[in-house]
Design a protein that fits this description.
Blueprint (H helix, E strand, L loop, with lengths): L2 H7 L2 H7 L4 H23 L9 H9 L1 H10 L6 H15 L3 H13 L18 H9 L1 H15 L13 H25 L3 H25 L8 H4 L2 E2 L3 H6 L6 H6 L8 H8 L6 E2 L2 H12 L1
Parallel strand pairs: 1-2
Helix pairs in contact: 3-4, 3-11, 4-11, 5-6, 5-7, 9-10
GO cellular component, one term: membrane
Protein name: Fatty acid desaturase
Keywords: Membrane, Transmembrane, Transmembrane helix
Amino acid sequence: MDHRTVIASLTSEERNRLTAKSDLAGLLQLAAHWGSIILLGWLIALRTPLWPLLVIPQGILIVFLFTLQHESVHRTPFRTQWLNDCVARVCSVLLVLPSDWFRYFHLAHHRFTQDPENDPELMSPKPETMQQYLVHLSGIPVWWSHIKTLAINASGRCSDTFVPAKGHRKVRSEAQMMIAVYVCMIAVSVYLETAVLVYIWILPALLGQPFLRIYLLAEHGRCPYVANMLENSRTTTTTWLVRKLAWNMPYHAEHHAYPSVPFYRLPEFHALIETQLRQTEDGYIRFHTKYIERIR
């Protein structure tokens, strides 16, 4: 049974319940995530005792805003559309990842998941050697890719095939606005003679990125190049804390099978289709242990 058959087997009541959106559920999760970042940032900025120990947790919280941005470009975390769009833009600044451009990129990824010819995620091959694996986990390639994308888009030279002609002006304006925001941040920091942004945002994000790479590699790494979303995407069993941090995206096969399901409905959808999943793993340590064994 493929994902289309599974969705078709749902009753109209089940589909309506699974795709129902809620501002309240999204805002509660948002308050927990953004609130934690603000709290840790404040403690780091005040140089409280043992503040260096907070830098990596702060970084993990920041880089995992990617999962929130991902959800927001689907416009599922909140019922109110402008709220989804505003949250996506805030995340885009913190992650140096333009949200309008990423929406085009990500919708193409959903349309052509694991299609070697058309899935834009496969433009950056998964690591096949230990050296490639370590470089991948470092996060250096992804930061370079984000910065390069921002510069290309701002210059009006975007040539990505997944960006339609009507979207070129939008992605150019978005990139230019983001660069303007960064220039203002730098100017204010220089004027105030403070490096606080380095300690509460830039350094933590650099140190936190490997944790996001570890998480993301499990979503499609070593999955077959087939059209069935229950087979080309992986659901990973993990702790409540990781699911909370990642906005329930460890239920990744479920998300690809039915992208209209908001993150807070994914556990219910998982319970309905668990027996149909073809790619699952019991934890991220186990996934990476197996991955490394195949590249030695």
